[in-house]
């Protein structure tokens, strides 16, 4: 995507070969900064503190993290230690384990002296594949938006509500939930996006709004609890979210608050779609509510917020009454019964095992 007219991915190898460069997402929305990852611990730290976030980008960063580990020490012991270190950074997004499993299985078969080069090639291929996958998701999702647009008056926009950030900042490029939006906008279809602020880290207000603005897509930031109200008044045509892990039976785990949007959508007859690459499907799980681990993050994300003061300073302030306990579950699970369809690189699927296995039979065999 473009930032101030310049094309960017969210992660790329440094030109001098010293490491990997990322866009530091903890600096948004008021500062655009890149930072270099020079070793394995840098990559693990970037995932842990959410300098990079979003399931596909976490997977890509983990692959580059393994490559940085192999650059320092290409031994078998180092390979296993690198994968274990990166796997421990965040528990919910399955793309992390997916990328590390691929790296471990492929690199262990390669002679140590060739591992670093092979690891960097693998990480780059994962990035290229992610872009191709997201473009396919975008094309399939755009068909849904196109059908709704046909029923609109000339110039009337299709109103999409999204939650959290499943944009190009959550992937290598294009995004998952945003890819259909960008492609529709670029094709001349009027689109307007309701952007949930997505407390407590405000990924909607900080990230989704930032990238939609840079792409020129009309959007409005709303508080998380406004979605149901907007649906009741006919101001939402469809909901599109991303997911960090999806079960083989179609349950989806996404940023906390997604489940409530799905309930409101069902009550108001609004289609609720989830956009995802097949790498986000965990074929070893069937019941998302009982089997998907939910990351519990620091309570300071709830009790404190960072913003820009009127005189241009970035400040973090406390917003919760002193002495109050805080809880911060980062994700929730939306049951398959509330999902209208899964927008994947192989088409829009029903959220059930039969449809998912039919679309991705090779993935099912790999997990058996």
Automatic annotation (TrEMBL):
Positions of the catalytic residues: 244
A Pfam family the protein falls into: IF-2B
Origin: domain of life: Bacteria
Positions of the record's site feature: Transition state stabilizer: 164
Gene Ontology BP, a term: L-methionine salvage from methylthioadenosine
Pathway(s) annotated for this protein in UniProt: Amino-acid biosynthesis; L-methionine biosynthesis via salvage pathway; L-methionine from S-methyl-5-thio-alpha-D-ribose 1-phosphate: step 1/6
Entry GO MF terms: S-methyl-5-thioribose-1-phosphate isomerase activity
Keyword Cytoplasm: no
PANTHER family documented for this protein: METHYLTHIORIBOSE-1-PHOSPHATE ISOMERASE
Name this protein carries in UniProt: Methylthioribose-1-phosphate isomerase
Protein source organism: Roseibium hamelinense
């Amino acid at each position: 995507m473009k930032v101030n007219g310049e094309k960017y991915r969210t992660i790329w190898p440094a030109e001098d070969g010293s490491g990997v460069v990322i866009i530091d997402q903890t600096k948004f929305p008021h500062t655009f900064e890149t930072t270099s990852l020079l070793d394995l611990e840098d990559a693990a730290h970037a995932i842990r503190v959410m300098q990079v976030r979003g399931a596909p980008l976490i997977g890509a960063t983990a692959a580059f993290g393994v490559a940085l580990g192999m650059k320092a020490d290409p031994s078998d012991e180092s390979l296993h230690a690198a994968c274990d270190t990166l796997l421990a950074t965040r528990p919910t997004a399955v793309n992390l384990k997916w990328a590390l499993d691929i790296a471990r299985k492929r690199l262990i078969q390669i002679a140590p002296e060739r591992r670093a080069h092979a690891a960097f090639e693998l990480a780059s291929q994962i990035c290229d594949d992610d872009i191709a996958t997201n473009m396919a998701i975008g094309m399939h999702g755009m068909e849904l938006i196109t059908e709704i647009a046909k029923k609109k008056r000339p110039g009337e926009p299709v109103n999409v509500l999204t939650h959290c950030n499943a944009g190009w900042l959550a992937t290598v490029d294009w995004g998952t939930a945003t890819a259909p939006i960008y492609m529709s906008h670029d094709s001349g279809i009027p689109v307007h996006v309701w952007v949930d602020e997505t407390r407590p880290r405000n990924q909607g207000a900080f990230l989704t709004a930032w990238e939609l603005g840079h792409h020129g897509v009309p959007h409005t930031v709303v508080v998380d609890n406004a979605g149901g109200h907007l649906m009741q008044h006919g101001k939402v045509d469809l909901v599109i979210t991303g997911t960090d892990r999806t079960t083989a039976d179609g349950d989806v785990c996404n940023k906390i608050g997604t489940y409530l949007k799905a309930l409101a959508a069902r009550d108001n007859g609004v289609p609720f779609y989830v956009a995802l690459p097949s790498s986000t499907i965990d074929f070893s799980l069937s019941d998302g509510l009982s089997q998907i681990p939910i990351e519990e993050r620091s309570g300071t994300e709830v009790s404190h917020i960072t913003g820009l003061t009127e005189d241009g300073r970035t400040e973090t302030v406390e917003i919760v009454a002193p002495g109050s306990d805080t809880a911060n579950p980062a994700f929730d699970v939306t049951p398959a019964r509330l999902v209208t369809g899964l927008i994947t690189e192989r088409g829009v699927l029903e959220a059930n095992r039969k449809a998912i296995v039919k679309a991705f039979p090779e993935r099912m065999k790999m997990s058996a």
